[in-house]
């Protein structure tokens, strides 16, 4: 099949599982159904658009946790850049099973893929050098209401996620968040007094900019 035909097929596969409302993104059944029919999708551009930022902050010998891996190729692209000690998690058992099979078929045996909830990370304290998420935290905001004053239920979920990330990061570890979320909406959460990390960000993308946050633990 030629490139145009391939692109049309991928678009058809994606549109077939697009939700009628953004609230569907909070439903685990939606993700299971989507991942069952979709082989690959990248939220917020692919790795090539922010590779230069990753390389500034992530060393090849880093132990990396990816939150909400879905069917993204991010872990494979990181692996190709020499970052081989990786653990990927997703809430969808369908996504996890398909990712495990895909990685094994390509010989990426070192990458671990686990079914787990980012709001209740099943890892010991201070065990990762880097935690990275791309578009995963944004799902928590789909029913947040006023972005300047999000609902308490949304704030509680986001804080549970951030507390877990902070806990599993090693001293001087880095949390990378790739998101639509603009700094004036994210900083009040990232800068909660319980966290001992500094907050900085870059942007990438043509026309529309995405945000690449770097939170360095113990550097307030």
Spatial strand order of the main sheet: 3-2-1-4-5-7-6
How far apart, in Å, are the first and last alpha carbons? 53 Å
Q: In one word, what is the shape? A: globular
Per CATH, the class reads: Alpha Beta
Task: Specify the helix fraction band.
Answer: 25-40%
Which fold name is given in CATH as the topology?
Answer: Rossmann fold
Tally of separate domains: 1
**Global mean pLDDT:** 85
State the CATH architecture: 3-Layer(aba) Sandwich
Q: Profile the largest sheet.
A: 7 strands, mixed
What's the gyration radius in Å? 17 Å
Low-confidence stretches: 1-16
Would you report the number of β strands? 7
User: Helix and strand succession?
Assistant: HHHEHEHEEHHEHEE
Q: What is the number of helical segments per DSSP (H or I, 4+ residues)?
A: 8
Please identify the structural class as seen in this structure.
alpha/beta
Keywords: Methyltransferase, Transferase
Protein name: EEF1A lysine methyltransferase 4
Organism: Camellia lanceoleosa
């Amino acid at each position: 099949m030629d490139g145009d035909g391939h692109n049309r097929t991928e678009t058809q596969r994606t549109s077939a599982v697009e939700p009628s409302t953004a609230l569907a993104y909070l439903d685990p059944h939606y993700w299971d159904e989507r991942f069952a029919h979709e082989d690959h999708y990248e939220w917020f551009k692919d790795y090539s658009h922010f590779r230069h930022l990753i390389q500034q902050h992530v060393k090849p010998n880093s132990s990396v946790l990816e939150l909400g891996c879905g069917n993204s190729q991010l872990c494979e692209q990181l692996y190709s850049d020499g970052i081989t000690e990786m653990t990927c998690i997703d809430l969808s058992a369908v996504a996890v099973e398909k990712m495990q099979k895909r990685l094994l078929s390509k010989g990426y045996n070192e990458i671990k893929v686990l079914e787990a909830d980012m709001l209740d990370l099943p890892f010991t304290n201070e065990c990762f050098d880097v935690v990275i998420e791309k578009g995963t935290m944004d799902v928590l905001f789909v029913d947040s209401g006023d972005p300047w004053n999000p609902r308490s239920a949304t704030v509680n979920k986001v804080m549970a996620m951030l507390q877990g990330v902070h806990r599993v990061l090693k001293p001087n570890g880095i949390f990378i968040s790739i998101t639509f979320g603009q700094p004036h909406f994210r900083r009040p959460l990232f800068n909660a007094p319980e966290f001992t990390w500094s907050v900085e960000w870059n942007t990438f993308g043509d026309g529309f900019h995405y945000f690449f946050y770097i939170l360095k633990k113990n550097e307030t």
